[in-house]
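Hello again,

I reread your note about wanting to compare the complex against the isolated chains. To keep things tidy I'm splitting this into two emails, and this first one only covers the full assembly. Below are the input lines as submitted, including protein chains and any nucleic acid or small-molecule components. They are followed by the predicted structure of everything together. The single-chain runs will come separately.
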Amino acid sequence: MSTMTDPPSESFRLSQLINDTRYRSYTFQFIALIALVALIAFLGANLISNLAAAGLNISYEFLGEPAGYDINQRLIEYNSQSSHWRAAVVGVLNTLLVAVVGCFLATVIGVAVGVLRLSNNWLIRKIMAVYVEIFRNVPVLIWILIIMAVFIAILPQPRDFRGEDAEASMLLGSFAFTGRGFYFPKPVMGPGSGIVVAVFLASIAGIFYLRSYAKKALFDRGQMIPTLWPSVGLFFVPVILAFFVMGQPITLEYPELKGFNFKGGIFARNSLIALTFALAIYTAAFIAENVRAGILAVSKGQTEAAASLGLRPGRIMNLVVLPQALRVIIPPLISQYLNLTKNSSLAIAVGYMDLTGTLGGITLNQTGRAIECVLLLMLFYLTISLSISAIMNVYNNAVKLKER
Amino acid sequence: MSDKQQSVAFFRETMLPEQAPPATQRGIVKWLRENLFSGPINSIMTLIAIYFIYKIVSGAWPWFMNGVWTTSSLAECREVLQGSTGACFSVLTERWNQLLFGFKYPEDQYWRLLLAMVLLLVAVAPVLFAKVFPRKMLIFTGLYPFIAFWLIWGGTILTPIVALLGFVVGYLAFKKFEHQSFAMGMLAFVVGAAVTWIIGGYLTEAMSGFIALQEIPSRDLGGFVLNIILGTVCVSLSLPIGILLALGRQSSMPIIKWICVVFIEFIRGVPLITLLFVANVVLAYFLPPGTNFDLVLRVIIMITMFSSAYIAEVIRGGLAALPRGQYEAADSLGLDYAQATRLIIMPQALKISIPGIVNVAVGLFKDTTLVSVISMFDLVGMIRGPILASTEWNGVYWELWGFAVLLFFVVCYGISQYSQWLERQLATDHR
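Full-complex prediction:
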């Protein structure tokens, strides 16, 4: 008779918490959790006692109080009696303005330089390489300050535009580039201008529809529909027609010299221009490298295969090389956009009132609400970068090579 | 055969001598035709580029050559130049010490900073060029942080010695308990080091005059040296932290993983300048009442956090690029997690991530100029503040900014060229 014995009962020993891989991870996580809670408790206790000692508290009521300072570059109505909250919103819009214009400029310059770096012209190639290396290897803060100094030093002052034989003159009588800032003509929307804008938007939608229809026709039936000239026509003709049919409702308000300064038109301060331009050419150097890497990443065999199928060079670029290069280029491109947006916080160095200048600068100094201001500041940038990386993830999944 | 010979009037029995290619197909002409004038568009671009270069050179050359190096103010310099174009490089010679060392560091102590910078080169050389310099020099590299601390901040030599002893004792304790498990070893390290530091703390307080250099508060640091100190300290501190964060993010333990993910994403989502604001105005609220961290230390903490998050992401890329077989091979050899990571995974992952790490390091070094925004006087802070605001040199932009550009370019370009060289050295795959 064999006796049935129980399997050796596993008595739990304390040393298993360290030595047994089944339990060890729980031990470590427990320790980590305890340490985290202890750290937060420690910081929180310090915060409370420090605030109590300074007679402060955490409150966001200061956002409703009048700011009491002026902002000289703004997209929405604001005066010194507006609230701190309003000032922060002005700052947010200013940040976004620099970010959007800067990203656009940086893309244009960066793509051009990246393509020219692969040019078969030796001199152009070298010049572009020098540009990229110089801008990549020097801090962006220095570039911002240099370009600001150059703007003020080189461009004429508004008073130079005065008199019969003025030292400076306006470009086309409507653009004035001064050391104080740039003046542009400002469109004034008369009655009926809404229709012109609507026609313009509709024609842009039409262009997109035409292109997708042409692509579908090409892929489904092999039918080639010309898109270039119809697109150009669609872009200009309807809006110009609408403009004259409605009786020219949109007029331009030109900047005019009054006394020692220009009046009217759109005024972009030197700090805005210098900051945008500096960020754009700094980031463009990085984008150029991404573009170059992306184009080089498409193997030569792809081009040759396309050529052996009988495609013309333009089609090879559009249908074979670019779609593959873009897959490589776009993710780092977007992270460069993100860097540019974050670097725009350096506006404070040239006195441009972006969010860091209003909420993190004057509001913080006036109210002394350091914790609240810095927290809001971080939250804003965090929101932007997290939402952009969410978009990037969606894009990456969309263009991922479909593999089995 | 003979028939043919008669039928053919003549045929050549020797080869013709090689003829030179036509003039347009050789030498410099060929190169020019191929590289500069291969088509109408290319020719136009070349001409534009040549004109562009000519404009820059013809503008900058007299400015540079007429440079004045010895005057003591802008007004004097303009007098010397008498209206002709010329640079006032004398701002560099006159304010040389301020540009490099800041304006508060006592002048008779400059030798300490200089010595620390020279020794930095000696300490870094064996790390950068492992094949050229003997391995024994790495001992000096290990000692360098303590020597540099003593040289730069001064005080008694006992402080760095006790700090070093703490690490030594900790290491010995680690060795003694390592055979039990890696975790026990680390615990022993922490205990050993802490005990030594606490005991040593009393000792240094009692003997604060022992071989002491003049103590210099860190707010007196400035100039380009401050950039170098911040850059070196923060990069070297953020490497180990970044490795830990990357491992944590790859970990299978959810709590640890999420702590790391939140930390990394938070830091990467905000600009460095907001973190510097935290160091400047917020961090003090979170420290125990009465503690008085100085600004440089707070800035070092924040910049280290910043760069370790970026380095963690780079190293995570390296970890992800390793084939799964490497992890499985390490497991099948019976190595535990710590051994496998130390011996198999990390050496390969770090090698893959070298270019990324260097990128982060260069970016970080450039970002150290941001401290000028929170009124610290690094190179940019010195130029914007004391020098351009002074009555003697108000208005000298090109010379000063050109100097700053040159310094940063030399350092950053050098580092990136080094990393490319290193990549080629470490390439073990066959191509």
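For quick reference: Chain A touches chain B through 54 residues (CB under 8 Å).

B.
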